[in-house]
Amino acid sequence: MIDEKAKKSLLSVRNVKKYFPIGGGLLTKAKSFVHAVDDVTLDVMAGETLGLVGESGCGKTTMGRLALKLLPKTSGEIYFQGEDIYAYTKEQEKKFRTRAQLIFQDSFSSFDSRDTIGKIIGEPLLVHEVAKGSELQDRVEQLLLDVGLKADLMNEYPHTLAAGQKQCIGIARSIALNPDFIVCDEPISALDVSVRAMVLNLLKDLQASKNLTYMFISHDIRVVRWLSSHIAVMYVGKLCEYAETEELFKNRLHPYTEALLSAVPIEDPNKRDIKREILLGEVPSPVDPPPGCRFAARCKLATERCFKEDPILEERRPGHWVACWENFHGESEIS
Amino acid sequence: METTKKPKKTSLLRRFRHNKPALIAGIVLLIIFTMVILAPIFTQYGPAKSDLANRLTAPTMAPGRAVGVTQPHILGTDQLGRDIYTRLLYGGRVSLNVGFTVATIGGIIGVILGMLAGYFGGWTDMIIMRMVDVWASSPTLLIALTFVMILGPGQKNLILALLINSWTLFCRMARSQVLVIRSSAMVESGHAIGASTNRILYKHIMPNIISPMVTTYILELAHFINAEANLSFLGFGVQPPDTSWGLMIGEGRKYLTQAPWIVIFPGLLIATTVLCLNLMGNWIRDEFDPLAVKL
Predict the structure, then answer these.
(1) Which residues of B touch A114 (CB under 8 A)?
(2) Could you read off the pLDDT tens digit of each residue along chain B, which spans 295 residues?
(3) Residue B6 included in any domain
């Protein structure tokens, strides 16, 4: 059943699981499953930016895809403005596609290399019959200007552009339908450092001018901190900690968050003597993980209970959720 | 951020004009097709008109000696004194008709089935591909032979017989291409903007698999022109006095030492047609792939 909080949020994720079968086919059953997303619950309010962080392979990209109904879920519910997106009718789903969009890590690979830039950006408008003919041209020109490109790029092919510009084309395509919600899947990690700031500023400006809500998936904590109002930390499919950005940086309640945040390089050489939490060991396999906390094997505080029971996500401070059996509290200044 | 300067988009025709091999191939094919289709305009002889007085005449520029006809036997005559040039034009109708019909219909069926199998996977894939396995595991010519024997010889039945497994190669090629594209970001992006499955399949996937399909089409075209020749040679294709390039080679085989021109000219024509089709295919492949380096 839908709860009160989910009614108020733009996007609510409730106990969502996504298991990918390994092996198995039409006639044989899969023997094991990758637990890509395992029991994740979170909310994104309108106008917010939720930063989803974690190491590669922790399920953050899968989470983003589930939030847009681009993958079938295994269980759980995802609500968009109080409606379960996995229970949508065809018309509702078509409407949803105009309101929720995706920005790819490598936008260029998401383009049809046969299409001109004008066609790529105009396609969403065409598909949803929002505009056609000369009106479509005008809209596409405006979108190009919105993302800081020249309108006369319309008839060019995207492969003639630089990486940053390609990403801008991808952004223009995503905002073409004036969506409310955009999942940004590592939108800058494939870019040169020199153009990252430009793309990030563009995303921030668009958010302000078009009243967008972002789910910003990244493994770069500093970027997430700069852009996000809230941060959710994931580890091997599980949500570890979830809070407002500054609250999370001031009070780390999960040992993994502590390790993740203290791994960020410190720019000020005078602060280099700050004690750092260096993780040992390997990330466990997400294939049929054993019960207990996924982080237990690398956690200094782990007790017997951590290896036996899954920690429950609880609100330990106002608006600050954490899934850990121990009473960890990192308060020291970091970065 | 510099954008690479790209010459202004030119019309297809202009780009075609600048590709010499494709241009020559195109012109040759145009000439062959025009002459074959409009055969009666280009020759004064009839395809089956024999002239026993002028049997096995070598190619000559001397005016023909038949009553009321001045056209020389420029490519010689066969064992019944029929004009080779004339028979090439009329025979081409059969060869090209069979080749194109079989490759086109087989291509359309095969590509659509292959795309569905590759895109939807699961049971759809299973059923379609097992059908392909069954058909493709038996040799084309033997199957065609069997069917022609049941249906009886003739051009229509020959086409039907060759059609039976003409689609399997297209199906396999299309499926394997679609499998690669299906999991690409391009398809995901299509879903993300709410494009319908049909739109994704026909606007994005199909154009992206067209170049290997064109290559397959040309190879299959050559394959079916050959298959037609083989079956005609064995007496299961068109029946004399009608002819085709393959049948002409078959019939002329016996006179190879005395009158090699009976075999040489249809052979040359088949080779030329196939070569030109290949050159055109290459050009089309490059033209539809903007990432290919254009020289």
Answers:
(1) 207-208, 288, 290
(2) 334 444 445 566 777 777 788 889 889 989 998 999 998 888 888 887 777 777 777 777 777 666 667 778 778 888 887 888 889 999 888 888 999 999 999 999 999 999 999 999 889 999 999 999 988 888 877 888 888 889 888 888 889 988 988 899 999 999 999 998 988 899 999 999 989 999 999 899 988 888 788 878 887 887 888 788 788 877 788 887 788 888 888 888 888 888 888 889 988 998 888 888 878 877 777 776 655 554 4
(3) no
Of all residues in chain A, the one with the smallest CA distance to B3 is A161
Surface of A (267-306) touching B: CB under 8 A: none
| Residue keyed to tokens 């983003």 | A64
CB contact under 8 Å between B126 and A26, yes or no, is: yes
Which of A70, A94, A111 is opposite residue B192, by nearest beta carbon?
A70
Residue B21: inside a domain, yes or no?
A: no
Q: Are A109 and B194 in contact (CB < 8 Å)?
A: no
Domains of chain A: 4-22+31-189+196-323 (3.40.50.300)
The amino acid occupying position B276 is: C
Tally of domains in chain B: 1
Which pTM value belongs to this model? 0.79
A298-307 residues labelled b (16+ CB within 10 A) or e (exposed): bbeebeeebe
Across the interface, whether the CB atoms of B1 and A114 are under 8 A apart is answered no
What 8-state DSSP symbol labels residue B121?
Answer: -
> Is B4 within a domain?
no
> Cβ of A228 under 8 Å from any chain B Cβ?
no
Extract long-range pairs of B231-234: CB within 8 Å, 24+ residues apart: B231/B141, B231/B144, B231/B145, B231/B148, B231/B158, B231/B161, B231/B162, B232/B94, B232/B158, B234/B145
Instruction: Indicate whether B50 belongs to any domain.
Output: no
Q: Which domain holds residue B140?
A: 100-290
In terms of CA atoms, which chain B residue is nearest residue A93? B194
For residue B243, give the CATH number of its domain.
Answer: 1.10.3720.10
3-state secondary structure of B234: coil
